[in-house]
Write a structure and sequence with these properties.
Elements lengths: L2 H29 L3 H15 L12 E9 L2 E8 L6 E9 L5 E10 L6 E2 L29 E11 L2 E10 L4 E10 L7 E4 L8 E8 L10 E10 L2 E4 L5 H15 L7 H13 L3 H11 L4 H6 L4 H17 L5
Antiparallel strand pairs: 1-2, 2-3, 3-4, 5-6, 6-7, 7-8, 9-10, 10-11, 11-12
Helix pairs in contact: 3-4, 4-5, 4-7, 5-7
């Protein structure tokens, strides 16, 4: 073997050793990391390079926080950069296949963990399920007209308040708002239920809103339902048209009440409003007054008189029974 071949052999062996050491170093680092940390790092890399690969455009003065694939469309959540320490300006944008913006909305949210979300129809209560195979599903034919729609949830950051859900239909080359649902409790998508309550092809969006009275804390508030159904080209409050469903809710809550372990001020106030929802406010008021003595000690501990509690619930029942559907 000549000197040249010997030199090449030494270089090759040295390179092999370096590669092995490099791989072992990476392995040791990975063994010390959790899968979640690795996934987070990968996600951060994808988000930083997404705009460079053309999936979503870069916006001057903003950084890409989250991206969504919506079939032929795509969307992104941007955060103002550099972001302040506590709250920052955000912008959610939907783009068509040519990267033309079809819809945008601005918000102010927490700098580190933004609150804007898209409803994942394959997840748990709208939030992605990491254990599910196949990935998230962000669109569904909610209106029953063959077009896909998405649900955009935005939280205000208030204490027990408030989330607004916007229904956006994705057409061939457009994104159209079909309706909004406000006053939901907590982060998206708490308080939102999606069901088919009739034989129609469209889906119904059921809003659960807490109505607090002087009787107790937020946990004691009545759970008041509102049904948003698709009609005349939009999702609007059609609660009064779903008396069968509301009666079933009343019967379900009464069955819970029969079990002493389930009795609570929350359930009692909910039942009072259940009666009001089906057009029986007097029955709701009577049921509430008859069973309120069970919670006199609880009221006393909060410095609330039974009379004040009864009056406030009566006012709530009256307002619900006289309210007309909202579009």
């Amino acid at each position: 073997m000549n000197n040249r071949n010997k030199g090449e052999g030494v270089i090759s062996a040295a390179l092999t050793v370096l590669v092995v050491l490099f791989v072992l170093g990476i392995q040791r680092r990975w063994n010390g990391s959790t899968f979640e940390n690795m996934a987070s790092s990968a996600e951060a890399f994808v988000l930083k390079t997404t705009g460079l690969r053309g999936q979503v455009p870069q916006l001057p003065g903003y950084e890409i926080v989250r991206t969504y694939g919506l079939g032929q469309f795509h969307a992104a959540l941007y955060r103002a950069s550099p972001a302040p320490l506590v709250f920052a300006a955000y912008r959610f944008v939907i783009y068509d296949s040519r990267d033309q913006p079809l819809f945008k909305i601005d918000s102010v949210e927490a700098s580190l963990n933004p609150w804007t979300r898209l409803y994942d129809f394959a997840g748990d209560h709208g939030l992605p399920n990491p254990r599910r195979r196949g990935g998230p599903v962000y669109s569904r034919d909610l209106a029953g007209n063959g077009s896909r729609s998405i649900l955009l949830g935005q939280y205000s950051g208030g204490d027990h308040c408030c989330t607004t859900v916007t229904v956006i239909e994705l057409g061939e080359d457009s994104a159209k708002v079909l309706g909004t649902i406000g006053g939901l409790d907590g982060l998206p998508f708490e308080g939102l239920e999606i069901r088919r309550l009739t034989r129609q092809r469209s889906w119904d969006l059921i809003a659960h809103r807490p109505y607090r009275t002087v009787c107790g804390l937020h946990a004691d508030a009545a759970d008041v339902l509102a049904v948003y159904s698709f009609s005349d080209g939009k999702f609007g409050d059609q609660t009064s048209h779903f008396q069968t469903f509301l009666s079933e809710v009343l019967e379900r809550d009464l069955a819970k009440w029969k079990q002493e372990k389930n009795r609570s001020l929350h359930l009692l106030q909910t039942l009072a409003t259940d009666y009001s929802q089906i057009g029986q406010p007097a029955m709701g008021d009577q049921f509430f007054q008859q069973n309120l003595p069970l919670f006199f000690l609880q009221l006393q501990s909060k410095g609330v008189t039974p009379q004040a509690c009864i009056q406030d619930v009566a006012n709530l029942i009256s307002s619900l029974s006289s309210a007309s559907p909202k579009g």
